[in-house]
Amino acid sequence: MARSTSGESVLTRTMRILRTFNTTPTTLSVSEIARRADLPIATAHRLVGELVDLGALERESDKRVRIGYQLWETASRSSPARDLSRTALPYMEDLQAVVREHTQIGVLEGTDVLYLERLSDRGAGRNVAEIAGRLPIHATSSGLVLLAHSSPEFQEEVLQQPLRRYTAHTVTDPGQLRRRLAAVRADGYVIAPQMITLGAVGLAAPVRDRDNRVVAALSVVVPADGRGSPHMHAPALVAASRGVSRAMGARVPGGNTIRTRGAKPSH
Ligand code: PHB
Fold first, then answer.
1. Closest Cα to atom 9, ligand 1: which residue?
2. What is the pLDDT of residue 5?
3. Disordered: where is this region (predicted)?
4. Is 200 touching ligand 1 by the criterion CB < 6 Å?
5. From CA 95, how far away is CA 156, in angstroms rounded?
């Protein structure tokens, strides 16, 4: 395969170009693509031109470029994400009908939560999670669920990194996080109050596959100052996550009993 002077293959450079569309804005000029992908402008021009000819990218009338329908079609047709979304959506809809704020499902990608689906009520409160968007593992309810069920090695790798404090409520101390992860495993769900953004509380529970491995986190986001305690949504959330898990072939023990930590839990 043709390699640049830096020794990188065309495929690697092409992937770097495609990944520049993973963040907003999703429509970019070639010079923005070159800068984000750290490529010489001539290389970016040539590769973007080829990707446009192949239909992977599309050019707008102002010459800016975005992901084309062909690439979207290929990525959406038969991915694990689509299977998970399809299985989860009926349960998410039922959950959303009760919570009437935001319901979402996410998987672990690197040290981020990647959100696959999100349902939101008109007039719902603030939510920084977007479909195909990422949020950090240590600062979201879904992330804490996914981390709690990851290997001890991966947990330590994450906990040893410098962890960003997004709000005054973000837990960044490794010892405190370890205790929080143990509580997630014991309780079967987690509440993350205003950890990623002020004004919003996340609640998440694990989704398991046929091998009983945790493959996703189902979560709801409610306003921090909403009526009632966020805890009141836990039974519906846990029931829905168990429903998705069963539909995925997991052997989930009967009943939807959940363990709560006193009337006014401290987490
Ligand atoms: C969370 O899962 O903790 C979470 C996610 C998105 C938000 C707020 C909270 O906007």
1. 202
2. 65
3. 248-267
4. yes
5. 33
Show the domains of the chain with their CATH numbers: 10-75 (1.10.10.10), 79-247 (3.30.450.40)
pLDDT in tens, 77-119: 878 888 999 999 999 999 999 999 999 999 999 999 999 999 9
Ligand 1 atom, smallest distance to 192 CA: 3
pTM exceeds 0.85 for this model = yes
Q: How far, in Å, CA of 7 to CA of 9, rounded?
A: 7
Q: Is 128 in the pocket of ligand 1 (CB under 6 A)?
A: yes
Distance of CA 168 to the CA centre of its chain: 22
Closest CA to 180 of 90, 263, 266, 54: 266
E strand spans, 110-161: 112-120, 134-136
pLDDT at residue 265, as a whole number: 44
Residues of the chain with pLDDT under 50: 263-267
Closest Cα to atom 7, ligand 1: which residue? 127
Would you say the CB of residue 127 lies under 6 angstroms from ligand 1? Answer: yes
What is the pLDDT at residue 28? Answer: 96
